[in-house]
Amino acid sequence: MALNHNPPPPPPPIETPLVVVEEEEVNDTQVNKSLRRLETFLGIFGFCQYSALSLTLSWLCFLLLGVALPLFIIEFSYCSNCDKYEIRSFEIEILISQSIVAAISLLCISHNLRKYGLRKFLFVDRYHGHMTLFRQEYIHKINGFFRLLAVWVLLCLLLKSAREVVHVIYLHRSWWQSVGILVALLVSWTYSTVIYLTGSALYHLVCNLQVIHFENYGKLLERDLDVAVYIEEHIRLTHHLSKISHRFRIFLILQLLFVTASQFVSLLETTGNRGIINFANGGDFAVCSIVELVGIIFCLHAAAKISHRAQGLGSVASRWHALVTCNPNDTSQLGMNNGRISSSETAYAYPSDSLPISYSESDLESVDYVPIPTNTQLASYMSMYQKRQAFVTYLQSNQGGATVFGWTIDRVLINTIFFVELSLVLFVLGKTITFTTK
């Protein structure tokens, strides 16, 4: 009997449904639109200095709008007999302060964008992976960047406008001159403020985009993967975090130093002045201080948030390791018995097939759940236990976080900064304010 040597027909190719393909293309298009919108915004305010021409135009615009225009207005509209409503030294010091912090923001951010490009700067290019997986999260965070910036710029602009209106009313200039000065000052101030806050908000955005990956890292524990995969993913995340810290370290240090110096100059001027300080002649100090502190809070909040997420991975892994080791085969002993919770396990308030992860953000507690791996072979070999133990030890010894020259920016460091600043404030007040008794 002859044998049929014809090979079997190949299996039919697996075709991706057209609806899914179109949906993915739409999502990719939305991400690209969000990134283009962000890049257009940055280009308008001079951050995208990709050529010599754009670099020259950016800094020329900054010098004209952010420095020369308000300086000309201060000199042009100076009133020598109006100290009650206008103090020239105050105006000059405020202009210097806001120009320096805006220049730092423009210089540092434009340097990074010119060196890496927007996608690599934000770690959302395809070569860094996960762009397809986190499309919606990326879009949400980029939209949050614009919302955050718009809300605070508008709030500060309202306060600045109120101060300038009061200032113009009391100086009794002609209406056309008053309107011209008011519009020019508001345009210049808005330009400098947007540049300064954009730098801080971009750092906030970069950290929040990485927070997405750190929060997703806990979900990897629900998959039956080799421990080496978990370690490699953690190394990738900490490597990105190290890059972010390196790129923004000069920016953070300079902003913190100059904002601190600006606040103390404001404190010295207002407490050391022998004249009357009111909203008309000293209100700009309050506006400038609020804007600068908002920018610093953006940076510190984002850095502390990502540091908290990175440091929390050790706790998540240790709980996962303990539950897998103690009960790898029979999940019913964790508290579920035929659909009922046993009385001996009432201490466990979470479901039997989940592992709670608690994060703290802005005084609110949120709980996520990571299912326990169901691989029944994890405890069969001692080597698997040793691998998990080594993995937990690795995470606990390499917590990571946002750093500045090796100093991790977490809640402990923020508390230290706060009390150092408070001590300096009290020292300045002790030197400038005195009480006399008869």
UniProtKB/TrEMBL annotation:
Protein name per the record: Uncharacterized protein
Alphabetical list of InterPro entries matching this protein: DUF3537
PANTHER family documented for this protein: GUSTATORY RECEPTOR (PTHR31963:SF28), RAS GUANINE NUCLEOTIDE EXCHANGE FACTOR K (PTHR31963)
Keywords: Membrane, Transmembrane, Transmembrane helix
Segments crossing the lipid bilayer: 41-74, 94-113, 144-162, 174-197, 248-265, 285-304, 412-430
